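Re: [help] complex structure
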Amino acid sequence: MTRAFYIGRFQPYHNGNQYVLEQIAETADAIVIGVGSAQLSHEKENPFTAGERILMITGSLKRIPIPVYVIPIEDIKRNALWVAHVRSMVPPFDLIYSSNPLVMRLFAEETIPVQSPAMYERELHSGTEIRRRILKGEDWEQLVPGPVAEVIREIGGVERIRQIARDDCDVNDCSPDRWL
Amino acid sequence: MTRAFYIGRFQPYHNGNQYVLEQIAETADAIVIGVGSAQLSHEKENPFTAGERILMITGSLKRIPIPVYVIPIEDIKRNALWVAHVRSMVPPFDLIYSSNPLVMRLFAEETIPVQSPAMYERELHSGTEIRRRILKGEDWEQLVPGPVAEVIREIGGVERIRQIARDDCDVNDCSPDRWL
Amino acid sequence: MTRAFYIGRFQPYHNGNQYVLEQIAETADAIVIGVGSAQLSHEKENPFTAGERILMITGSLKRIPIPVYVIPIEDIKRNALWVAHVRSMVPPFDLIYSSNPLVMRLFAEETIPVQSPAMYERELHSGTEIRRRILKGEDWEQLVPGPVAEVIREIGGVERIRQIARDDCDVNDCSPDRWL
Amino acid sequence: MTRAFYIGRFQPYHNGNQYVLEQIAETADAIVIGVGSAQLSHEKENPFTAGERILMITGSLKRIPIPVYVIPIEDIKRNALWVAHVRSMVPPFDLIYSSNPLVMRLFAEETIPVQSPAMYERELHSGTEIRRRILKGEDWEQLVPGPVAEVIREIGGVERIRQIARDDCDVNDCSPDRWL
Amino acid sequence: MTRAFYIGRFQPYHNGNQYVLEQIAETADAIVIGVGSAQLSHEKENPFTAGERILMITGSLKRIPIPVYVIPIEDIKRNALWVAHVRSMVPPFDLIYSSNPLVMRLFAEETIPVQSPAMYERELHSGTEIRRRILKGEDWEQLVPGPVAEVIREIGGVERIRQIARDDCDVNDCSPDRWL
Amino acid sequence: MTRAFYIGRFQPYHNGNQYVLEQIAETADAIVIGVGSAQLSHEKENPFTAGERILMITGSLKRIPIPVYVIPIEDIKRNALWVAHVRSMVPPFDLIYSSNPLVMRLFAEETIPVQSPAMYERELHSGTEIRRRILKGEDWEQLVPGPVAEVIREIGGVERIRQIARDDCDVNDCSPDRWL
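Output below.
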């Protein structure tokens, strides 16, 4: 019985994430998905709450025939404690899938096996690109599973991204307390 | 479509929780379960990590025919922000089930509908009683669903509870930094 | 020009506080009032939010003819930093009035002058006694200035104290995450 | 009875803020002013403590004939909790005045009415411009109410801004721990 | 080369600690001493700052012929992360000496070797007993190494303990914000 | 008896730090070294843990004939409290050596004497330059004391810096939760 761990911010969840998880589902017996930076929302780079992202992911993974755990992971901002933090919040897992060098390094220093998943048209399927398209009014719905587009519409996600973007704060300075 | 919210610490998850959730499942279309004080573990009152508790709950709810979300909720220690905290971490819900007066008050002040679930032999089916029995070596397995007993055995939960109990720290003073 | 500092939790503000502040107002040119444990509310010992307490205090001090600053002070739980924390949050002051030994000690170690105000029927005029009377349905309104009773009524404060008290959590364990 | 809420960082308070508040005072019965990022000081973008900013604001608003509450608001860095945080710290209010898109969005999602105040020569009257002038030795006193200039002089604010600016840390990296 | 880890709160450091460390020094090549609850001070149970405690310890260990590292460890209040926290703050170590069951459990779950040191008249040589004697004016200096008594005298430690004790706050409620 | 305080991030400790400390050791009776941003590690700008940095420093200072205290200092991100934070964590000191304008300002506002140490080929001897050389495979060992090079080799520090650098996160966005 192999439980695999996969983590992302999912701002929003997209077809690239879906492709990777479908690959993992072919070999693992269960999947644990960490929703990173769970405490962030209503920012240009992080428009959606953890709850909204969980809804997107579970809606998209209904067809996967193995157990899937979707767990919000709040930042702790101390890299040396991050693996212990993740492990305390999710069911035990046997290996992790990640192509992020820092994530790979932190798990490797704890001697946990890491695999890099094959990516699917990475430049197109990225949260950055999708948020940019939503902001500019370009087509974005084709890049995400149907249930994701539905959640974004229901919560007024397009309007939220556009209104937040009018803020003159930059990416490191986007809390409501930062206006002039 | 009605999504119901139910929250507890689940230290551990027991037949009383199971009874309530099976009742809720008969009327709701989906259930969101918050695992409270998610950041606590290895304490007399809070022996299990959030990940271990999630495993107990999902193992016990396999037969429930509606979608179930099991989400860790870290404490924020500011009651006036607690409802907003919960709502940001979980999918949107329509009503909550709780018999805790403070939880009921906090949701009611935000005008969210609250219902008190019928309880099932409450004195017997409580985390306090089950932890006491584990500690004293009395029979406890009959008070929890099978998968819960299995998780506790696999993680060495009985030994953990007994070793922690040898600590002379009291309930408010149980961090490892508190010895003399 | 002498600015005096006075601090309390004001759960709720009462005639004893009013008496002390009227005494201070006779010698100082301005008063800075710190509302301590500002982040706490909806607890048996701390039922009211900082905003509600500020409303009680300013309503009661309308007649005082010198400038009054009412400032919420969140706990930092590090005594060695507490004086620096207070000083960063409030306008500069010249002396403090307190009869709390720890407050007196912390300011004295920073060589800030401390005076102990004359108290007014201390056992009767205490937050503890007033909260007890509200809970038990005994007469409490005579112990607080008129505007305080008005604020408590408007926000449903009596009902809040009574509902929270039904919680079986004890004083150190009153967050909503602590139920069984 | 209408209580209006207005929030800013006030680094420092200036004639543009004063203009807006005088407008609000003509229609509201009371004003609540939130001093945002209250925990920050001694940074290029945030040179003044909350206490110093409160002194600037109250000194400038002496002539306003309605009650004014000036309340420090510490950052919480979780946008989804920010409105609840603000509301717990200040007296209840009926509408907010803001031209910051994120603030407007966050309050609107909680269905609290938002109005955009008319601005007064916005480019000139901004904290950024005033801090730049102080740093460069250009005339800045005409951009702030008299009491603000007085506070800045008394606390050695000009020297503080200039000394901090010699730091080679950039705006996101200005804590004392960040030198090489 | 064996580096041993030993942790305590050292409120204050006493002959029992000294006895254990002298034993450890006979077999280890270096000792790492963690000063737990480093952020606490000016409390009945935690009267001394981390800096004061470091001074006591290093003064008492001058004669030990192997390298000694004395490191403050702030509480993190998440037991599942505590071992990772400690390990990030101190030089690498090979085994730990502790007789605290929770500390032993947490290290053992990370498969780090734990040894229980022989204790020396434990009831007499405890921080609790020494603080009690200081408070009551009984003889305490014989229970601590000479340099500890000297540090306590120099910082006015006796007066601090007595003044703090006049506070009516109990052990869980000793921050300056907790008075009535 | 003069105790001097010196603070840096020491990512890593280098010959420039060594030069300054040897100068200080000629006039002071004891040195307290604060290891700043102690909670950070595994970042491009902060690759090493506090424990690793303490090992580098103590290994390099074996020959210094006066007592040396090496103390990790976690960030608190509130400049107005930073001096109180430092003072609570380290033994009392009489003057500080720093060439960082913000550190100088914060201590000066608390009327603690500050001296600027003579620097030694500052551009060459900086953590930034050494990390750049490690990353690029250029010669860096000549810029640090021998024990520092040894620690970096033993912990796999070169590989850590290179692997982390493959991350596409920028300097303000380097937590593991920030990937796309």
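Residues 38 and 74 of chain E are 5 Å apart (CA to CA).
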